[in-house]
Design brief:
There is one protein chain. The protein is 35% helix and 25% strand. By secondary structure, it is an alpha/beta fold. The protein folds into two domains: 68 residues, Arc Repressor Mutant, subunit A (Orthogonal Bundle), CATH 1.10.10; 225 residues, 3-Layer(aba) Sandwich (Rossmann fold). The strands form three sheets. The protein has an eight-stranded mixed sheet with strand order 7-8-6-5-9-10-11-12, with helices on both faces. Helix 5 packs across helix 6. The longest helix has 17 residues. It is globular. The C terminus is likely disordered.
Length: 303
């Protein structure tokens, strides 16, 4: 291999770290790959760390010890999260998105990789301290959002199927739970292959929309059957009504107050939780993740 300049090495190291966030790479990975001394790679990493801090690109940290190395963690600042929420509220607030019955069309936005990748980093920041082993999604609309969150955590995505349809033979036995939809009060069911979620796993549920929380409540019940734990619930949009949800804790980026079909207006805005975090003095630093049972999450659930 030709002798690489410092800029070349930094580009290659950054690409490897960003591609597999949260993974710890021994320094030997880069010394052997790039043919450089350990001290040289350490200097490159220090420069990369400073650049990430200056341009708010996430965090690169070096871990000491025999099992140490270097890892990259995607993190968004409160200002970045607020800007993302305001941009989405503007896009989704267009009158052309109103559907008959007071619904909101947003499939095209959730199909844009640039948008879902950014949202994945946002949710990875919200739940950074929860250390999930996997990310859960309900089939169809929530998959893209959950997949990008799983990518940001570098963990598997597990998709829950609606209804009690039998799994393919290759997936083996499955578990099904019934739950009551919080909005329609209809009894529905969700199904998951038992081997998809190991016993004791820490699961993060990500969805696109939350009205009364019936689906999220069902996911809690499903994980209980799998002997796993739900460590967080994140949604892109939560409705302001009903005020009392069927889940005690969740984080929502946007709040939806409904539409006025006659006037052609959509009442959607960043949630109070998002705006309050953005208004904090440490605006330029990374957002501190919500703690289980903390006031921040409880207030978000009431927003």
């Amino acid at each position: 291999m030709r002798r690489l300049r410092r800029g070349d090495r930094m580009v290659l190291i950054a690409q490897r770290l960003f591609q597999e966030p949260h993974k710890i790479f021994p320094l030997a990975t880069f010394t052997e790959w790039l043919g450089a001394a350990k001290s040289t790679i350490s200097e490159d990493l220090s420069a990369l760390r400073a650049l990430c801090e200056e341009f708010q690109l996430g965090r690169i940290e070096t871990l000491a010890g025999a099992a140490g190395g270097v890892r990259y963690t995607p993190l968004c600042t409160p200002a970045q999260i607020a800007a993302t929420a305001e941009d989405l509220a503007s896009r989704l607030g267009q009158p052309s998105r109103i559907l008959p019955g007071g619904f909101l069309y947003m499939t095209d936005v959730l199909s844009l990789p640039s948008v879902t990748t950014r949202l994945g980093d946002v949710f990875a920041t919200f739940f950074a301290d929860r250390r999930p082993d996997l990310v859960l999604a309900m089939e169809v609309k929530g998959i893209a959002l959950a997949l990008m969150t799983a990518r940001a955590f570098n963990v598997p995505l597990v998709t829950i199927r609606r209804g009690g349809r039998a799994m393919e033979g290759a997936e083996g036995a499955s578990v099904t739970v019934n739950y009551v939809s919080g909005s329609s009060r209809a009894v529905q069911s969700m199904t998951l292959p038992m081997r998809a979620v190991p016993a004791g796993a820490r699961a993060l549920f990500i969805d696109d929309f939350l009205r009364a929380g019936g689906t999220a409540r069902g996911v809690h019940d499903l994980m209980r059957e799998c002997r796993a734990e739900v460590v967080g619930v994140g949604v892109l949009i939560a409705t302001s009504q009903p005020r009392d949800k069927l889940v005690d804790e969740y984080v929502a980026l946007l709040t939806f107050d409904g539409v006025d079909e006659a006037a052609g207006t959509v009442r959607i805005a960043p949630s109070r939780w998002t705006l309050r975090r953005a208004a904090r003095p440490a605006e330029s630093g990374p957002l501190r993740p919500a703690k289980p049972g903390g006031d921040e999450v409880s207030t978000a659930a009431r927003s």
